[in-house]
Amino acid sequence: MLLQKNYLVLEKIVEELLEYEILTGKDLERIVAENGGIREKEPFLLSSATYEEPKFGSSLDGNAPAIALLNATN
């Protein structure tokens, strides 16, 4: 729904990206203002996500399957 309401804004962004290859935050604000863009009201939620660092072991701590996988990529 929000994308449909901002169709003209998105079209103008595409045109300017094709012409200039880069847009700043000020450029985007200008395009939204000049073309009647509708901004989403906060708070909004894209999705919940969790991030965990990958765990790597060494042969010293008995993590042989991880070592075998790493060696297989060489």
Task: Characterize the structure shown.
This protein is mostly helical. The protein has a domain at about 1-40. Helix content is about 50%, strand content about 0%. It has helices at about 1-5, 5-20, 25-35, 65-70. The longest helix has 14 residues, at about 5-20. It is elongated, with a radius of gyration of 23 Å. The model has no long low-confidence stretch (mean pLDDT about 80).
Number of strands: 0
Count of helical regions: 4
Given the helix and strand composition, which structural class is it? Answer: mainly alpha
User: What proportion of the residues is helical, as a percent range?
Assistant: 40-55%
Order of helices and strands: HHHH
Distance between the termini: 48 Å
Mean pLDDT: 78
Q: Mind sketching the topology for me?
A:
Layout: H1 2-5, H2 7-20, H3 25-34, H4 64-72
Key features?
74 residues, mainly alpha, Peptidase_M41-like
Provide a quick synopsis of the model.
This protein is mostly helical and 74 residues long. The chain has helices spanning 2-5, 7-20, 25-34, 64-72. InterPro entries: Peptidase_M41-like.
